[in-house]
Amino acid sequence: MKNRFIKGSLAALVATLATNAFAATEVTVYTAFEADILAKYKNAFEKTNPDIQIKWVRDSTGIMTAKLLAEKNNPQAEVVWGLAGSSMALLKEEGILKPYTPNGLDKLRVELNDPQSEQAWYGNDAFFNAVCFNEAVAKQLDLPKPTSWEDLTNPVYKGQIAMPNPASSGTGYMQVSAWLQNMGEDKGWAYMKDLHQNIAHYTHSGSKPCVEAGMGEVAIGISMASRGAKLKTQGAPLDVITPAGIGWESEAVGIVNPSDAAKRVVDWSISKEANELYIEMYPVVGHKDVEATIANFPNVQQKMAKMDFARMGNERSDVLRTWSDKFDGKSEAK
Q1: Full-model pTM
Q2: Where would I find the H helices in the chain?
Q3: What is the pLDDT of residue 10?
Q4: Contact status, residue 231 vs residue 209, Cβ threshold 8 Å
């Protein structure tokens, strides 16, 4: 009986030690990636790194940026992965992101990365805005096809345009910033005032305006070009239009708590394997050796606005305060 007890105790101890030895380390990752792609990225990472589990905390860019700033003195995130470059620049300036040189850095496109010394963030992909135009609704309502930003101020579109609230959506903010940077402050704000007359509502998601246009809830959604291409490929009656001066930005990765597990998440996030997943949705990714053609994605190269991402980060609070004072009355309820 005694021997059986000892053997049983030893077996239990060995089992406990084995469980502890192989228990995965959990890494908290803050993200603004679209919710429908998170499982794919998590599964691919954990297949390669079975001793680490990702715990996603996901929200739109504006909300996630505000959360990280609010937690500055008591950070809860270990990695930030899939957040706008302008937000990452601000987080670095605030000391939230820590400088880190990931393995494989030499394989990345430098134009998507932190341009400053002691780099702290690295581009996963570049994403672009577009105008999602529902051709079926347009035919029904006899609406002309817009080709420029100025066209969208035509009263014929009154109540037929949705766009993201820039205070809660990075997609919205990068277009507001593009207008201000490329039109100039006075003309940019005047343009948004005219556009506001035609806005049905401002959403809290960057992709939602295009989804709404695809479903015919509005005729026009100022939104993510990648979402427009995907919906068109799925059969939505959309024309994905790129007026000159479209907003664009990189989505990037950076480290908050430089633990070994967090570093491995960052290293994998810039790997060729990860970039081969990004390219399924985004036309431009960080890895030099990964390229693909996305069905129905518009030609953005000649239409891209000139973007100063450091300026975007530094001006963010002032721009959003002004925008909210002027236009927030048409925002959807959260």
Answers
A1: 0.73
A2: 2-22, 38-48, 61-70, 85-93, 135-141, 170-183, 185-196, 208-215, 225-233, 260-269, 272-278, 309-327
A3: 55
A4: no
DSSP letter at 304?
B
Q: How far is CA 213 from CA 177, 219, 322, in A?
A: 23, 5, 27
pLDDT score of 179 more than 90: yes
Same domain, 182 and 319: yes
Domain count, the chain: 2
Say if 63 falls within a structural domain: yes
Instruction: Say yes or no: 8 and 115 in one domain.
Output: yes
Characterise 55 by phi-psi region: left (phi > 0), alpha (psi -120 to 50), beta (else).
beta
Q: Name the CA radius of gyration of the chain, rounded.
A: 23
27 against 283, higher pLDDT? 27
Beta bridge partners of 285: 125
Whether residue 244 sits in one domain with residue 172? yes
Q: Enter the tokens of residue 25.
A: 């380390």
Query: Using CB atoms within 10 A of its CB, is residue 125 exposed (0-12), middle (13-18) or buried (19+)?
Result: buried
Q: Is residue 294 part of a domain?
A: no
Per-residue pLDDT tens for 41-99? 999 999 999 999 999 999 988 899 999 999 999 999 999 999 989 899 999 999 999 99
Q: Tell me which H or E stretch contains 203.
A: strand 199-203
How many angstroms separate the CA atoms of 83 and 250, rounded?
8
Q: Show the domain range for 70.
A: 2-126+249-285
- What's CA 113's distance to the chain center, in Å? 15
